[in-house]
Automatic annotation (TrEMBL), chains A, B:
Similarity comment: family membership: Belongs to the FAD-binding oxidoreductase/transferase type 4 family.
Requisite cofactors: FAD
Recorded superkingdom: Bacteria
Enzyme Commission (EC) number: 2.5.1.26
Organism expressing this protein natively: Streptomyces griseochromogenes
UniProt keyword annotations, A-Z: FAD, Flavoprotein, Oxidoreductase, Transferase
Annotated positions binding FAD: P134, Y135, G136, A137, G138, S139, S140, E267, G268, T269, L270, G271, V272, I273
Residues annotated as the enzyme's active site: Y455 (proton donor/acceptor)
Record-given protein name: Alkyldihydroxyacetonephosphate synthase
UniProt-annotated stretches for the region Disordered: 1-22
Domain FAD-binding PCMH-type residues, every copy: 102-283
Length: 556, 556
């Protein structure tokens, strides 16, 4: 954290403060002039950036819920707290914030400092009929932290950021007990003195928390093998409205369905994750990376398939299609780029990289650069662009450019069709919706032996005032396409509220019944993140009240 | 399958027939003379083997349930079918069968030939109040296929062995759609022409099915990385009483809690798995293995920990403690033995084996033999003993020797204490229970970066007629020990009915509520495998009927 007092581009707050409306910190956001310059690169973008409203000028709704005296010291209804906890960071969130629409603001932001505080908040909320939206650092891009229902007496945003400690380290088993509110950099800083690392680096790393990663099954650093945070979990501790759910610390188990797997991906609907024992890695001492260029994208896909099925498990294996590679500035026109990386704490990795490059060459790839310890410029260039992207997205939003990212996964047999169909059809949709020619680019973020996880980026000039409506149309079309192609609605961005239409169609109906029943059992008052994943008022949620089990005489 | 007509040692049936009372096929069982010779090796064993009852002489209970006419062609109440489907293959199962106790025999054995048959059976059973016990090949050692309740009008064993086909192969994604009733050798035979393999080889491989592996989260071939069948699942198809649950074929997903993970380990209580898309491997072309001897077991444990945390992912990494190694005939007195194996379909593996052996040497190990392609005699010797073990267990049972195997997992920090405490305390328990000096040996079957999966074998001379009671006491003491040590009640043998006391204490209470609620939602009549995993009559199962959600006005 710097101490600089250079003012941010607009809005209120000191430069290293978190932006209330957009990504990250105020000082990293693009200035008005930078936004305007960026807009000039997109034909059809607005001429001037949307202004950023000052918090004091926002028309926040009346506070309906007053804190009980025991919890009052933890609660805040300060305008900045309420405004910054109204939305996550989806495009539509940023646009609505820029429009000054904070009508869905929580009544209170509550910041527990202990697990007992979390319990007390849930007890009070159930009693007072107040919805509770668990909030890590608010990086959701799927409406995961935004309250949209209105049947409750009010809503509080449960901000877990004060629970940010690494509580215990087991160096023998290479594991640590970590509180859910720890941001990526904070938990890594606490592990570093021990030579250990969680090595989970989502794009949101700086501005997302362990608890958020666990609740949403976040995708991380590793492009193969341990792709989701799920794989790094040894045990979870979850405060549910009916009690604390703590699983044993186990390296593996076969005792019934995994308790942890019910809470991983539950997105705050079944309980509040307060801490977890996480599997750690030793810090890698050997690293090597390389960039491979392909003239033909489908040949590159075949190369990546070969890599994913080779058992070589590269840490990095990102394939950028021509549009994505051009945007990142790492390739010539029409070329696809594969970024490969290997790492180890124990042994040199050069031989493994050589084997990977041989596979790439077999499929027509040309290694361009590479070497040990990050000597690979293209990979570095791409990584820096990668971390900067959310700030650029916000700048594009201010220039009324519609941007949407969505990601999925499918098996290899369907990957070429998925790529072509989504790009082709979505390009048409963008033209229909915006009247302009947009771009639809793709990269593979994670790959498995049986298929890739393609990540699409849509960019098109919008019409001022209609950005959200356009985004909604494009998002909806993307979900329809993925559904028709049998691909998942999300590989690692979660479901939240925005992906519900796709998720509801994808989820097997008996599982919906089981999940709804579990929800009722754990959250009988239905206060936890209503509207995310499952809808308590939907038929599927209520039809599962069986008659037979009400009659004890029929129970075997 | 051979055509030999040499008669089996006793009992009825042709030699390659499955044993109705014990492991495997009749022709592989030890003869009376072999049993007697084996007994002489265990001081205190009986002088003569327990006789094997002939099926016609068994006092099977009256058949309470007659098949409806539509299902009659699928059902059998033949004595041999009923007797062979009464139990799994736990020690107590074998002993009770030898005692002629088949009082828990199912009324009917039903063998669906199509998925529609499965649906029809469940519909009929719910209507007729008949319990349904899904049955793959009956290798459960935890009471998973034995009906113990008596509140129903009857019970059928749902034998899925006719659903044994590989239905579809996707060579591009390396996956296959396989029916749940396929035995290990049968499904491998169908995959072999394509150069592919599931490579899941539990000890029960010959006599267990894909559906059984999935329902019980079986542990397989790989000692590291893809240890459980869970990791090889792309999608599941499950017939539940409320409908078919089919998940998308996906290499990975982050859309809510994993639907498949609810059914993996559900042990037939939530539905009947009828087929699955499974991730396959190419058949390995490069293999190497080696045996390392250690004077000190705890040094060997440290070596295995180093291996598990090295990222080298050996396919085999079995550590035998001195007792286990002596029993398998692969080491001198007091020595521990580590069997290491590496394999790859693509590249030579010798360098990796060399790195593994270096780690073993660093911890005081002495490589004894080894080389490419199964040149390692000790490993071969051990593997052959491993596959023969269940037959020996049956022979010991006939000599009234009490044998019990149980397996667990814990983190590395607790592994030495677990090993010493379990061996020490259980040796005392065995003396208290049997009055004799028994042996308690241990091997690690699977290892993870954060801990091992220790597998214990107890052998002690019992008292004729009291074998089951003695076994129950030892089993109960073992479960208590594991619970006190914070280790799981099972790493890959499942819960069934025998592990319920340990599982009920281990499972977090809120998860128990969620699982009970899911059970009621999917199996409203409570017909599926009653008593396994959850008890429909237990308070935890019934206390989760929330009041709030019955009142729609409070639903947000």
């Amino acid at each position: 954290m710097t101490d600089s007092s250079t003012p941010g581009p607009s809005g209120s707050g000191s430069p290293t403060d978190r932006s209330w409306w957009g990504w990250g910190t105020v000082d990293q956001a693009l200035s008005d002039a930078e936004c305007t310059a960026l807009g000039k690169l997109i034909p059809g973008a607005a001429d001037t950036p949307l202004p950023v409203p000052d918090v004091p000028a926002l028309a926040l709704p009346k506070v309906r819920v007053r804190p009980p005296s025991a919890l009052a010291p933890l609660m805040s209804s300060a305008p900045r707290d309420r405004a910054s906890h109204t939305y996550g960071k989806a495009y539509r969130d940023v646009l609505r914030a820029l429009a000054g629409d904070v009508s869905a603001a929580p009544d209170q932001v509550v910041r527990p400092r202990t697990e007992q505080h979390v319990i007390d908040v849930l007890d009070w909320a159930a009693e007072a009929d107040v919805a509770v939206v668990p909030y890590g650092a608010g990086s959701s891009v799927v409406g995961g932290v935004e309250y949209r229902a209105d049947a409750r007496h009010g809503v509080v945003s449960l901000d877990l950021s004060a629970l940010d400690q690494v509580l215990e380290i087991d160096r023998v088993s290479r594991a640590a007990r970590i509180q859910a509110g720890a941001l990526g950099p904070d938990l890594e800083a606490q592990l570093r003195p021990y030579g250990l690392t969680l090595r989970h680096f989502p794009q949101s790393f700086e501005f997302s928390t362990l608890g958020g990663w666990l609740a949403t099954r976040a995708g991380g650093h590793y492009a193969t093998l341990f792709t989701h945070i799920d794989d790094l979990v040894e045990s979870l501790r979850v405060v549910t409205p009916v009690g604390i759910n703590e699983s044993l610390r186990l390296p593996g188990s076969g005792a019934g369905p995994s308790p942890d797997r019910l809470f991983l991906g539950s997105e705050g609907t079944l309980g509040v994750i307060t801490e977890a024992w996480m599997r750690l890695q030793e810090r890698p001492r050997h690293k090597a990376s390389a960039t491979v260029v392909f003239d033909d994208f489908h040949a590159a896909v075949e190369a990546v398939r070969a890599v994913s099925q080779s058992g070589l498990h590269p840490a990095n294996c990102r394939l950028l299609d021509p549009g994505e590679a051009a945007l990142a500035g790492v390739a010539q026109d029409g070329e696809s780029v594969l970024v490969l990386g290997v790492e180890s704490a124990h042994a040199p990795v050069d031989a493994r990289l050589t084997e990977l490059l041989a596979l790439a060459r077999d499929h027509g790839g040309t290694p361009m650069s590479g070497g040990p310890d990050g000597g690979d410029t293209a990979a570095r260039t791409w990584r820096s662009a990668f971390l900067r992207m959310p700030y650029l997205r916000d700048a594009l939003a201010r220039m009324s450019v519609v941007t949407e990212t969505f990601e999925t996964a499918c098996t290899w047999d369907r990957a070429p069709e998925l790529y072509e169909t989504v790009r082709g059809r979505l390009t048409e949709v963008v033209r229909e919706v915006t009247g302009a020619v947009g771009t639809v680019n793709c990269r593979f973020t994670h790959v498995y032996a049986d298929g890739p996880a393609p990540y699409f980026t849509v960019i098109a000039p919008g019409r001022r005032g209609a950005e959200v409506a356009m985004w909604d149309e494009i998002k909806s079309a993307a979900m329809d396409l993925l559904h028709d192609l049998g691909a998942t609605v999300t590989h690692h961005h979660a479901v939240g509220r925005d992906h519900r239409p796709g998720y509801d169609r994808q989820r097997p109906e008996p599982f919906a019944l089981a999940l709804g029943a579990a929800k009722r059992a754990l959250d009988p008052a239905g206060i936890l993140n209503p509207g995310v994943l499952i809808d308590p008022t939907a038929p599927a949620f209520n039809d599962s009240k069986p008659a037979a089990f009400s009659d004890p005489t029929t129970v075997g």
